[in-house]
Amino acid sequence: MTEAIFEPVIGRYLRLDLLGEPHRLYIEEAGQGIPLLCLHTAGSDSRQYRALLNDAELLKEYRVIAFDLPWHGKTSPPPGWQNREYKLTSQAYTDIIMTVCEALGLDQPVVMGCSIGGRIVLHLALEHASHFRAIIGLQSGAHVEPYYDLQWLHRPDVQGGETCAGIVSGLVGPAAPDDGRWETLWHYMQGGPGIFKGDLHFYTVDGDIRDRVAEINTELCPVYLLSGDYDYSCTADDTRALGRLIKGTEITIMPGVGHFPMSEDPDGFLQYLWPVLEKIRHAEARP
Fold first, then answer.
1. pLDDT tens track for 158-217
2. What is the span of the domain harbouring residue 181?
3. How far apart are CA 99 and CA 14, in angstroms?
4. Is the residue at 159 inside a domain?
5. 221 domain residue, yes or no
6. Bigger pLDDT: 150 vs 272
7. Is residue 203 part of a domain?
8. Labelling 66: which of 9, 121, 138, 257 has CA 20 to 30 A away?
9. What is the pTM of this model?
10. What is the 3-state secondary structure (H, E, C) of the chain?
11. Number of domains making up the chain
């Protein structure tokens, strides 16, 4: 008989008001030490950070925290959702993150986000630098032009989950292990109707920060950018261009890695992430 083992991850619901409405926000966390707040990609949820939440060495030094945005994963939309269209905006996204940080009492956390999470951390570095120990952007770009018709993501004559997964399937790196590849796609197959499309409103329209990123001061809040080079949504050149605009940014390009480094190949990703986390850990915290 196989031994049953509990993971160290604790999942709970946090009741709080977000954007003026009551929510039950689903949060998972594990470990102790410096808070590391992890933000999932568009149309997915915090399960993308499962491997980080279970990495024994990481948990010795960092309190890893991941939550499902409203309308995503185990966080249900607010009452009356059936009468509205979901569209994520930069202001709403920022307000949600800052409210969660305050509710959890996080003292100078590191915040790490991928894709839309990699975009919003740039907004945080610009507008709330003093609140964060460091910013880590995965697949971060200042803007992206839509490269397919977003209407296909929410149509009554198209199977939404399989369409979303099909669209992002080409963004997974070719060397990703099969289990990581298919778990990443499964999360997309389970997304609510119209949620991926609504997130991409922020990613392609509202979250455009090209004209402002040069104002980010990395002396106030260090910025680290890690990008896989197998990604046509945020190319390595996009990340390099972003780094040229933000003085003092440190960039790591991950060969063969796609758009979802933390879930498609977590073991490979941790080899690139660890040096960054060690540098952050040994840096003196700002008063």
1. 667 788 888 889 999 999 999 999 999 999 999 989 999 999 999 999 999 999 999 999
2. 10-282
3. 12
4. yes
5. yes
6. 272
7. yes
8. 257
9. 0.95
10. CCCCCCCCCEEEEEEEEECCEEEEEEEEEEECCEEEEEECCCCCCHHHHHHHHCCHHHHHHEEEEEECCCCCCCCCCCCCHHHCCCCCCHHHHHHHHHHHHHHHCCCCCEEEEECHHHHHHHHHHHHCHHHCCEEEEECCCCCCCCCCCHHHHCCCCCCHHHHHHHHHHCCCCCCCCHHHHHHHHHHHHCCCCCHHHHHHHHHHHHCCCCCCHHHCCCCCCCEEEEEECCCCCCCHHHHHHHHHHCCCCEEEEECCCCCCHHHHCHHHHHHHHHHHHHHHHHCCCCC
11. 1
State both tokens at 47.
Answer: 């399960």
Residue 270 domain-assigned? yes
CATH of the domain at 209: 3.40.50.1820
